[in-house]
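Predict the 3D structure for this chain.
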Amino acid sequence: MHDLRWIRENPAEFDRGLTRRGLPPRADAILALDREWRGNETRVQEAQARRNRLAKEIGAARKRGDDMEPLLRQSAADKESETETIAVAARLRGEIDNLLATLPNLPAPEVPDGLDESANRLLRLEGEAPCFNFEPRPHDALGETLGLMDFARAAKLSGARFVVLRGALARLERALAQFMLDLHTREFGYTEIAPPFLVRDETVFGTGQLPKSADDMFQTTDGYWLIPTAEVPLTNLVAGDILDEASLPLRFTAWTPSFRSEAGAAGRDTRGMIRQHQFSKVELVSVTRPEDSEAEHERMTGCAEEVLKRLGLAYRVVLLSTGDMGFAARKTYDLEVWLPGQGAYREISSCSNCGAFQALRMKARYRPAGEKGTRPVHTLNGSGLAVGRTLIAVLENYQRHDGTISVPTALQPYIAGQEVIP
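Done. Predicted structure below.
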């Protein structure tokens, strides 16, 4: 959500931000509604003051024994007018809020302008891709040959874009998640959370998935939403709160399933585990003071990178363009891991600084030390990492000529020292 007061003071900057997002200017329309709304609010206050004066006059007339009928008629008429004005003001404020709720966050100055991923900026390459003396195979061929990855039975159970993992691969996926959680909690200071997987409308509104991304989520018949990412419940842990400055930053992590309808992904990544309706992810969320959020963004990205480094996976870091960022983000780094079976880098984590955007929607604030007022916190989120895609990367990068899979050293303690998936 955008701060209406800030738009009043910075209309040109607001429109420039929207233009960079590929949207038409909206400041004039918003401010026209705002002026009308504030005018009605002023009339409501004036009517209340007038009614209070009349009440005193009616009381005085009663004591004197004067005729009160004209004053009572005036009071009733003023109350009716006030009620109508209150309704108009509420309608106008609703129109403003509804309009603001559909507008994405404004990009940070350093974010490259562009319509899509073609304008993303490569920042750096990390690690070395493996060299094979054979043609590397994609993860789905490896998994099916091992007899441990079953798309056919998953389709029988649930349809397309699902998978059944068996035995060593199911165990390896669990090991990956446990490794990530241990790293983030023991070394990076995140607090592990086990959140609900079903949430209310106001929860997904708070992080920006509603109203824009309703088509990409699953909803139950009684109105709950299946979480598209643990960002939703983790960030909303502070919704409606006024936090003490000394308690910041807050850092949360969770390993949860995520559910997405992939409404806009028809025909994309139809084979394998790259794009599924259900997948697991270890999420990172930070809640900070505004002046700390840029440094926290770099720190969070480094935490996600460390997972890839310890697994020995080559990757690159990309700064997303204005046209490729998510709705709530003001700046996003993508980590893209090398997949030899595809001969390409693919996204495995997005780390975003949302600034005050989500906090304004959630009414999450903090009270600076020594001040009476409150300010919105800043929120950040990132994958640390997407567990299914990390499993894909391990399979493709650690495959051997005979179709078996070496187990990265960092994961072996989580699977009783096993070194190879036979």
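The first helix runs from residue 4 to 9.
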